[in-house]
Amino acid sequence: MAFVKNDVEIKNEIKELLFDKHVEYIANHGNDKNDFEYCMTEFLRMSGIYWGVTALDIMNQLDKIDRLSIIEFIKQCQCPITGGISPCIGHDPHILYTLSAVQILCIYDCLNEVNVKAIAKYVNSLQQPDGSFFGDKWGEVDTRFSFCAVAILALIDKMESINIEKAVNFVMSCSNSDGGFGSKPNAESHAGLIYCCVGFLSITDQLHRLDCEKLAWWLCERQLPSGGLNGRPEKLPDVCYSWWVLASLTIMGRLHWINSEKLEQFILSCQDNETGGFSDRTGNLPDIFHTLFGLGALSLLGGNNNLKKINPTFCMPEYVIERCNIKPKSIVI
Ligand SMILES: [Zn+2]
């Protein structure tokens, strides 16, 4: 029996970055408030704004959207009781949207517009006795939330608000024998969660606890003949995994372990040459999430001079991380 591999065939090859089309795609995103997609994505509005703002900043086009109305929206999303931030006005706060909001405010250099102390208190309230974090009051535990917690606290300079040692021990308890990490102890390794755990260890200065050789091999094996990367064995390639895998390898100093040229070709093939924007894989409809991660991965690959440098740990422009005076660790080999 032949060994069947899940992959895609790149049919319409696009060689160039469609820069102006992407700027237009993001700037117009969400402009039409009656748009079906706009109404359906209310539950992740805050993250949608973060994806758009970051993508535009990476392209040096931040002035294409209205800074003041975004800041006003964020202020209205901070819960006066818990201090957490919700995805949209009238929704419940969650650690994921709190991170998105803090990232946007750092890019706009205006953290003082919200109650930062209350955010630190909110993050503290979500830490559990075993060091893990709830995402919100409903009590789901996931290593993604551990990453969100330390990323938020690093950005607002309130790292002392949680028990870091316990937080690190919990994340390490989610590592697997293949070198990867899952969402909780004994859960399967997954590239998105590996990014969260490697990013967590980068922020908390604990990268020495990684089995880098083993983990980097697992990550390299995510590259398929099309050049694209998948998130787990036997899955299809997807542009967002270009980010999760590449950022993890970059933090571990092993970006050169994958074939950059083929990956770049795969990412460029996922551009929509009519509307602009990137889709998950070639031929599908574009969305703002894959547009940020496509551009972010291209920035990490470094071949495009029109893109600003992106920080692999925070998925934010490098100059913003420097301005915040944060020094996430990476391995140099
Ligand atoms: Zn995806």
Characteristic key phrases:
single chain, 333 residues, mainly alpha, Glycosyltransferase, two-stranded antiparallel ribbon, 45% helix, globular
Could you describe the 3D structure shown?
The protein is mostly helical and 333 residues long. It has a single domain, classed as Glycosyltransferase (Alpha/alpha barrel). 45% of the residues lie in helices and 1% in strands. The chain has 14 helices and 2 strands. The protein has a two-stranded antiparallel sheet. Strand 1 and strand 2 form a beta hairpin. It is globular. The N and C termini lie far apart (41 Å). The site of zinc ion has 4 residues, from loops.
The CATH architecture assignment turns out to be: Alpha/alpha barrel
CATH topology group: Glycosyltransferase
The neighbouring-strand order within the major sheet is 1-2
Query: Rg from C-alpha positions?
Result: 19 Å
What is the number of E strands?
2
The end-to-end distance, rounded to whole angstroms, is: 41 Å
Number of domains: 1
**Which regions have little confidence, pLDDT < 50, spanning 5+ residues?**
none
SSE topology string: HHHHHHHHHHHHHEEH
What does the overall shape look like?
A: globular
In the CATH hierarchy, what is the class?
Mainly Alpha
Q: Count the helices. How many?
A: 14
User: Structural class of the helices, strands and pairings?
Assistant: mainly alpha
What is the percentage of strand-forming residues?
under 5%
Share of helical residues: 40-55%
Whole-number mean pLDDT: 93
Largest sheet: 2 strands, antiparallel
Bound molecules: zinc ion
